[in-house]
Amino acid sequence: xxxxxxxxxxxxxxxxxxxxxxxxxxxxxxxxxxxxxxxxxxxxxxxxxxxxxxxxxxxxxxxxxxxxxxxxxxxxxxxxxxxxxxxxxxxxxxxxxxxxxxxxxxxxxxxxxxxxxxxxxxxxxxxxxxxxxxxxxxxxxxxxxxxxxxxxxxxxxxxxxxxxxxxxxxxxxxxxxxxxxxxxxxxxxxxxxxxxxxxxxxxxxxxxxxxxxxxxxxxxxxxxxxxxxxxxxxxxxxxxxxxxxxxxxxxxxxxxxxxxxxxxxxxxxxxxxxxxxxxxxxxxxxxxxxxxxxxxxxxxxxxxxxxxxxxxxxxxxxxxxxxxxxxxxxxxxxxxxxxxxxxxxxxxxxxxxxxxxxxxxxxxxxxxxxxxxxxxxxxxxxxxxxxxxxxxxxxxxxxxxxxxxxxxxxxxxxxxxxxxxxxxxxxxxxxxxxxxxxxxxxxxxxxxxxxxxxxxxxxxxxxxxxxxxxxxxxxxxxxxxxxxxxxxxxxxxxxxxxxxxxxxxxxxxxxxxxxxxxxxxxxxxxxxxxxxxxxxxxxxxxxxxxxxxxxxxxxxxxxxxxxxxxxxxxxxxxxxxxxxxxxxxxxxxxxxxxxxxxxxxxxxxxxxxxxxxxxxxxxxxxxxxxxxxxxxxxxxxxxxxxxxxxxxxxxxxxxxxxxxxxxxxxxxxxxxxxxxxxxxxxxxxxxxxxxxxxxxxxxxxxxxxxxxxxxxxxxxxxxxxxxxxxxxxxxxxxxxxxxxxxxxxxxxxxxxxxxxxxxxxxxxxxxxxxxxxxxxxxxxxxxxxxxxxxxxxxxxxxxxxxxxxxxxxxxxxxxxxxxxxxxxxxxxxxxxxxxxxxxxxxxxxxxxxxxxxxxxxxxxxxxxxxxxxxxxxxxxxxxxxxxxxx
Amino acid sequence: xxxxxxxxxxxxxxxxxxxxxxxxxxxxxxxxxxxxxxxxxxxxxxxxxxxxxxxxxxxxxxxxxxxxxxxxxxxxxxxxxxxxxxxxxxxxxxxxxxxxxxxxxxxxxx
Lengths: 886, 110
Prior knowledge:
The complex is a heterodimer.
Chain A: H1 2-15, H2 17-41, H3 46-57, H4 60-70, H5 74-92, H6 94-123, E1 134-140, E2 145-147, H7 152-161, E3 165-180, E4 183-192, H8 195-200, E5 206-207, H9 212-215, E6 222-225, H10 227-234, E7 244-247, E8 250-257, E9 269-272, E10 292-297, H11 303-314, H12 317-320, E11 330-335, H13 343-377, H14 379-387, H15 392-428, H16 444-471, H17 474-480, H18 485-524, E12 535-541, H19 550-565, E13 570-576, E14 586-587, E15 590-591, E16 602-607, H20 611-614, E17 619-622, H21 627-631, E18 636-640, H22 641-647, E19 657-659, E20 675-681, E21 696-700, E22 710-715, H23 719-733, E23 738-744, H24 745-789, H25 791-799, H26 804-833, H27 849-875, H28 879-883
Parallel strand pairs in A: 4-9, 6-8, 16-21, 18-20
Antiparallel strand pairs in A: 1-2, 1-10, 1-11, 3-4, 3-7, 3-10, 5-8, 6-9, 7-8, 12-22, 12-23, 13-22, 14-16, 15-19, 17-20, 18-21, 19-20
Helix pairs in contact in A: 2-3, 5-15, 6-13, 6-15, 6-16, 6-24, 13-16, 13-18, 13-24, 14-16, 14-17, 15-16, 18-24, 18-26, 18-27, 19-23, 24-27, 26-27
Chain B: H1 12-20, E1 26-27, H2 28-38, H3 47-60, E2 63-69, E3 75-81, H4 83-108
Antiparallel strand pairs in B: 1-3, 2-3
């Protein structure tokens, strides 16, 4: 029963506080009038009676306050009223409140977004069972990376004889020619040992996974597709299970659809694969190797231990398969997690992480500056409050509530910023940089961390006035504040060093993004020898069985090329096994009369006579091959300048004989293995945009049927229109031939070379802009605080005859001192720190003078501008007003 | 009013207020005067102590209040003992008995 009464009182006090107050007021008043009456009856005069009654009562408001303090739920009431008071305080200085909230929200938002990206892409990218133990392995020869896929015999031995893996499954990359009623398309397929599905622990979205039964020889052919293919090709039709499709000219039944995050190998579809020592893998043996092996390391086994285990198993292979396991080879085991993001981009992400941490630091110190400045201006308020008897705890509570209000509002806004920022980043993150399995979501742990960081900053800085209030002598506080002399000295140095630190941090951040910007420009200005936006490329996917030999392929390509070169606006066209600026085929070239080299260090391209004109390669010496040379598969070779320099020095290479021992295992390779060098062309980029060209050889495409190939066309017209006509012509020649990846070389460069640095650049530039903005706010608030605190002094100076310009320069000088100190520290720090960025920077020195100078002057400009506003205000001070300021 | 008021021990005030309400329901001033009377003027309860105590006890559910007319036809807030209040009075009385006995014992010990 009493509990019920208590609860009722509590609720009444909380929600009907007006009625409770009126009731109390009436009660005290009636008490007072009864006292007066009593006194009058006792014979006092009315005036005396009134006086005595007041004395006994001791003040209506005091009594009421004492009652209020007794009430149930009084604490909540006073907290709520503190909140109201705090809101009123913040509303009274909206500029402060908005700046503080926005600053913190930006800090929280960007930190959370970047750390979530790193968490999703780098730390926990894979959805698979025990994903942290998933590993794969590669082979290095003594000097270089050699192989990451292995022949079936090796796979079987690895799988059966290892002691360090729980399970092991194999994947084989295949291009699949998918024939449909309305034409053909090319997809990538993974032939996979069906135990992969159980090992990865992912159930299909629809239907069933592949089983060992499916992989048995003679089993009815089946396949499962990725969520991506299901969406793009079948528009998420749930009735496609059990339908039959033509893949590589075989009719196969679709039995399952995998969920969105099942993307092992980034394939469009998966086919069952049974691997025995005799397994023949179609299309294998050409440039690439065979089986990609993935497995779970046994719990507690390190990659190094596993590598030693596999090394023992692989030792005997060296004799049978020297191309995979060269002399002195060594196996390296890597976890999938460690390889989720390419090394360069991983570094880029860490750069972003550092950048965003700098931003968070700037944001926090900015809020600290704001709160400290505010604390000083409020010293008087707190002096008065403590003089009126407010306890220290009560003052602290009031300040805590104010800080919490600030922090909580910023947190809410920060979460919104983080959500939007992450969404934008996921949308603009370059393709193929993070594993397709990765799901980038706001990470609660990260959010919690940055929220804690802000709350701690806000609360600590917010408490400063309470510290002063408690040791401030109310008398002193009361009279001295406002003259601003003492106020400045106490926290002035803390505030000033925060500004200096902010400027320095922003310099480091801006120089880093400046360097990345310079290096992106340098990349984009690399001269390829042709205009990449005017050269069209198209991968050609051929149906199996029809185009296996070099002659069959060449017949098709010659027909298509003849049709294409007749288009208006086409300058030249070629068949090629490779598109610039990276050549994928590497081979060993032996020159007769010289000792054969150990390394596959020469790039090789199979092409037709139009290649050189298409990519604008000038002939330096000798001759290029003619259409007749190509059509008749003459054993001729054109080499580049680097090849000649490396292999012949000053000798004349024309007429020299070379052989390509790596290719001699191909069935259609010429019996007489010697080729004649007929010409030397200039170097072209063949190891990416950044690295210098390596030795390169050009061979007629008719020499070998194995390498897959495509078309490249140089045009003066609209490249997209040309591409459309190419599609039409190709399907006119053979409707079963599909066009794979296609576009202009410019789009290819953008995708493979510019997208990542650009992503880094956009993100870092955003951070830099925000950082400068915050620095401006920081400088502005410190200087305007100083000006406000020194109005008195400035007034005296003006009264004594100081001119406006003198006052202006006085204030600006003070600000500039801080800014210059920050810039110097920042430049010094950048000089050492930008070295860490060297893997992200190309074509510009990490201590590039012009970048350093530009960013320093930018910071100087921003800082001076932020000083000028309060300085102008100081210069316009009316001496009379200033002197009356007291 | 002319005798020096003794500082009321916390808890004693509750006991005195509860005791003063046993006979009839009365308003705040009445309670104050009755306490003065029954303690022979030893205890003078000022409104600054009385009202907070009354409101606290009402929230505890020991007393309840209502608005009525005073002897001089003035609206006043009256208080009455509830069932819980009577029980509380017994508890407080017993406790006071124990305390005063204990104090007396202590003082009598040579």
